[in-house]
Amino acid sequence: MGRTLVFPFSLIILALTWASFIPQIKHVWQTKDSRGISTAYLLFNLLCITEHGFFQSLDTACLWNISKFPSSPFSVYPLDWANLAQVLGDWVLSNVLFLLCLYYSPPTRPHRHRLRILLILALYSFFLLFTLVPLILDLTTDVFCPPNNPHDCPLPERDVVPFLRGIHCFFLLPITTVILPVLGFYKQAQRQRRQRKQGQPRRQHHQEPREQAIMIPPSHPPSPTTPTDLNRLLARSRLFQAAIFALSAILWIFRLPPGQQERAYDPPPPPDEPLPPQPWLLVFLHWWIFMGYMTVDEVIFAVGQGVLGYLGLRKAIAAEGRSEGEEEAERRVLLVAAEERSTYGSES
């Protein structure tokens, strides 16, 4: 599938992925409460999308820098800018959702709550010091240029570029894009299941319908307000986001054609040199490190959001069924009470 055919689909997916964050941000903003949202789930997914932004920005910057040479066979296509725009847009919207949930998180103990928020922000800031902060300094200043060419040196000649890419490829990429997101989804699913068990109505024991009718007054006060269950509100938007990111994961296979990323760093082999066969595991790891991490990570995100959306939707359906059953039971109890009063009046 050529770039010309993929480009319009990429623009559609770009708009849909941005739009999939809006309902979640809107619900948190309107309810002013992020109860039920795991901080680990938010932080680990934000670290993952920050890693995506680092790699996409670095790859696009290197291609752009190399394409300036007169004899360079490389060029930055509109599809490359669309890829970068989607990743950076997802990063910005994920930051907005992350900060809103931190700001509106319910404080149980004020001092521990502030300390916890400061610790989370410190961890995120520390991660930025190894990803986007040095990359921005590299792109805007000449502080990392070698001594023999201290001004306006090409980006691949700067020592920090291959060093940072090597550190992220072989050490941080498996942790931040696979292990941490899976752990974050597990923590969020665990919290939702715990909330579901806590929200189940307790059974009433040792009360006959006649006694219940006598105990219920004609006009009982309304029940106290309960906090909004944000996971129930976000269930459908999470399912929508899961479907969009699943389509985006499939499209990333065609948006990053084989050999595009490594050509910017490794010279091509001589034409007459035969390539030895590689084990399939090494081939997969090479594909995942240089190109396939976006596909694998968005599949993980789509599956995780789909599971969370399913859990929230199941809880919403169960809550609707319980509310209808409680209304029907209350109507039956009021009818029994009315019959008791009419019987008592006729006997008098």
Tags for this model:
elongated, 348 residues, mainly alpha, 11 helices, 0% strand
Total helices: the number is 11
Which structural category do the helix and sheet elements fall into?
A: mainly alpha
The secondary-structure element order is HHHHHHHHHHH
Distance between the ends = 88 Å
Mean pLDDT: 79
What composes the largest sheet? Answer: none
Name the beta content range. under 5%
Unreliably modeled segments: 202-226, 261-266
Radius of gyration: 28 Å
Number of structural units classed as domains: 1
What does the overall shape look like? elongated
Helical residue percent band? over 70%
**Strand element count:** 0
Biased composition (Basic residues): 191-205
Subcellular location: Membrane
Region (Disordered): 191-228
Transmembrane segments: 84-105, 117-137, 163-186, 239-257
Give a quick summary of the entry.
The chain has 348 residues and is mainly α. The protein has helices at 3-31, 39-66, 78-103, 110-128, 132-140, 160-198, 209-215, 230-233, 235-255, 260-263, 280-347.
Outline the fold blueprint.
Layout: H1 3-31, H2 39-66, H3 78-103, H4 110-128, H5 132-140, H6 160-198, H7 209-215, H8 230-233, H9 235-255, H10 260-263, H11 280-347
Helix pairs in contact: 1-3, 1-9, 2-3, 2-4, 2-6, 6-11, 7-11, 9-11
Membrane topology: Multi-pass membrane protein
Transmembrane segments: 84-105, 117-137, 163-186, 239-257
InterPro entries: PQ-loop_rpt (IPR006603)
